[in-house]
Specification:
- Helix content is about 35%, strand content about 20%.
- The N terminus and C terminus are likely disordered.
- The longest helix has 23 residues.
- The protein has about 270 residues and is α+β, with helices and mostly antiparallel strands.
- A hairpin with a 4-residue loop joins strand 5 and strand 6.
- The strands form two sheets. The chain has a six-stranded antiparallel sheet with strand order 1-2-3-6-5-4, covered by helices on one side.
Length: about 270
């Protein structure tokens, strides 16, 4: 949906809003860059009001959005903003204020992320200093291939759904990943990882193995990929466990085929088919 807005006689802009597979998250596309080009990370996620004020990437807009009653997180992509609300909050109540704040920030002409010489992020900060999918000289050949597949084949679909993906390592044949933005708290995140990312990764890895049959070494390395492991924070683990219990109850009551799909446009669950 496109909505024209103007503030204080400034030029009119169009902000597009899109639903995501997560009913508690909305994606806003203001047709305006959100992150500075010189920023090495492709996304920034704010999970607490304090994180909107603290280095390395304080943001007045994120601070204002997080101060709205019912808003639980703000996610910046290169050209979109995903806002997540609490389950008991109503979009009809919070969306107009979110829309107004984003419009005001964009029409002001100021950077969404002020360019300041802040101290680097400490370990564990939500805003990482660089892209986890970027090339690293210490990466093995298989890790480099995994990162390339995630970057070119998987990340675009995740971003389409209002989120992003973070690479956390490759251990015992398992690719360690963390979902961000709308996908972080989505009930279908496990389905996205297992049926979508894992299936797509295996598909393209198999494709590479078939194409490059001249190199047995590459084939052996590719075969080391066994699956995907989702990296969760403590609160995310609790939420996932509660959803699993709820889903199990629904299956017992109505049967497995009655569960409604939560995939959205561009979702990996449909792309991987």
């Amino acid at each position: 949906m496109l909505r024209p807005s103007s503030v204080g006689g400034s030029r009119s802009i169009f902000i597009q809003t899109e639903n995501t597979p997560n009913p508690d998250a909305l994606k806003f596309l203001p047709n305006h860059p959100i992150l500075p080009e010189e920023l090495p990370t492709p996304f920034i996620e704010y999970l607490t009001p304090r994180s909107t004020l603290a280095p390395p990437h304080p943001s007045p807009l994120a601070q204002s959005l997080m101060n709205i009653d019912g808003i639980t997180s703000v996610f910046y992509g290169r050209d979109f903003i995903t806002v997540t609300k609490a389950a008991d909050a109503n979009w009809a109540h919070v969306k107009p204020e979110v829309f107004s704040l984003i419009t005001e920030a964009v029409t002001s002409g100021q950077n969404i992320i002020p360019l300041t010489h802040s101290k680097p992020a400490e370990a564990g900060d939500e805003a990482d200093a660089r892209d986890s999918l970027s090339y690293n000289e210490s990466d093995s050949e298989i890790v480099g291939m995994i990162k390339e597949l995630l970057e070119t084949r998987i990340r675009p679909a995740i971003q389409e759904d209002g989120g992003d993906i973070e690479y956390r390592g490759f251990e015992n044949g398992n690719v360690m990943l963390k979902l961000r933005g709308a996908c972080r708290t989505c009930d279908s995140s496990t389905v996205t990882l297992k049926n979508g990312i894992e299936g797509m990764l295996m598909h393209y890895v198999s494709l590479f193995a078939t194409v490059d049959t001249s190199s047995r070494l590459i084939f052996v390395q590719i075969e080391e990929v066994k699956g995907i492991v989702q990296v969760l924070d403590q609160e995310e683990e609790i939420a996932m466990n509660e959803f699993a219990k709820f889903e199990e109850r629904i299956k017992k009551q109505k049967g497995v085929h009655s569960i409604t799909s939560t995939v959205g446009k561009g979702s990996l669950d449909t792309v991987a088919d």
